[in-house]
Give the backbone structure.
Amino acid sequence: MRLSQFYLPVMKETPADAQIASHRLMLRAGMIRQAGAGIYSWLPLGFRVLKKIEQIVREEQNRAGAVEMLMPTIQQAELWRESGRYDAYGKEMLRIEDRGGREMLFGPTNEEMITEILRAGAKSYKDLPKLLYHIQWKFRDEVRPRFGVMRGREFLMKDAYSFDLDEAAARRSYNKMFTAYLRTFARMGLKAIPMRADTGPIGGDLSHEFIILADTGESAVFCDRQLIELSVPGKDTDFNDDLQPIVDRFTSLYAATDEMHDADEFETSVSEQNRISARGIEVGHIFFFGEKYSEPMKAVVAGNDGKDIPLQMGSYGVGVSRLVGGVIEAFHDEQGCKWPMAVAPYHVGLINLKAGDAATDAACAKIYRELEDAGVEVLYDDTSARAGEKFARMDLIGLPYQIVIGPRGIKSGEAEFKRRADGDRSEVAIDSVAAHVAGLVEEALRYD
Ligand code: ATP
Ligand code: MG
């Protein structure tokens, strides 16, 4: 992509009302534009990151055996009356009336809708288990939308739902999502720690929030340092195997959010130097809730003996749009974002220091073409801006690699190559820089 054709409205000043780094940087780097309280447009650069995160989530859901579908954003109040949540949900639900006076709502989540879908289509015990998901916009009229996309009112969520015949089978579905989440966040370069979370009136041990540690996080969390070092299951993991040992490995070490924290247990089960008491960002939440919806909504299948079996359900959310901010919180410096390759809006920034000069233009055009041919995503700064502005802008948007071509380099036959993560610079022959960088990108995109 040529920057001259792109739309990248970067801001020089730090937006006054943005309190945390990711919010500031997303505004400054022209990734988002606020449309209303907690509502954002995704500008081209931000949109690319959102789509990359979404795609990683999708690939890992698919790998775990979940099946993608799509439910609407607008739902009927009637459905929510069946579960009793139309009144219970309160002011966070955005309620709408259509022209016929029918009560509608903008979905904050989809348990009711998916339960109705299974109720209509799954008739026999032979139709289960089922694990379905979609990636769809939600609306929650949050009391205090803040921190940009971290706590929006309109936000993109992956929500999966499992349907099983009994609790043992439901646990197997739960374990699939637990394992998929470990892999999902690791692929984005994040260390997300599964932490015991509140299960409400249902009880049991099947609720975990996946939390990334960050000073700007909204949750107070407590965990064992050893969790940070645990290695995540590889891509050869067979999701039809027994995944309980994986789940046990991660849940045997102490990790709990504020609401579930037990100070005595924390002190007795974690050695002092391993005790982390910190703040964190909730990027995912998995939850088994049994018959909470299937019972009031009468979602049953016929058992082997012809008797009705109520569906045992769980739901599994990932905050896709929140993750864009979460990744920035984990990877940035004063100058801007430092994207991990897997979610970077482009892999490489190519800077032409003297656009309009025949020799630098020709060299850049050739490198640009070679990179694109090699499947590398390049943002080519072919604009007439001054060098200082180009450098600052490229650092701000934080593409992992930069290639800089100027008249001096043309003379010596060298391009400057810079790694954004640590600022390391080196000279690479202009003739081979594209192949060199393409190799590095390919390597950085490889994952287990
Ligand atoms: P929170 O405790 O942060 O309000 P929640 O527990 O209400 O979140 P869930 O219903 O578990 O959220 O939703 C699943 C995921 O969706 C969360 O783990 C989070 O990553 C994301 N999410 C929830 N609310 C928001 C929001 N207002 N803005 C952006 N992402 C959100
Ligand atoms: Mg939650």
Summary: Residues 209, 282, 285 surround magnesium ion (ligand 2) (CB under 6 Å).
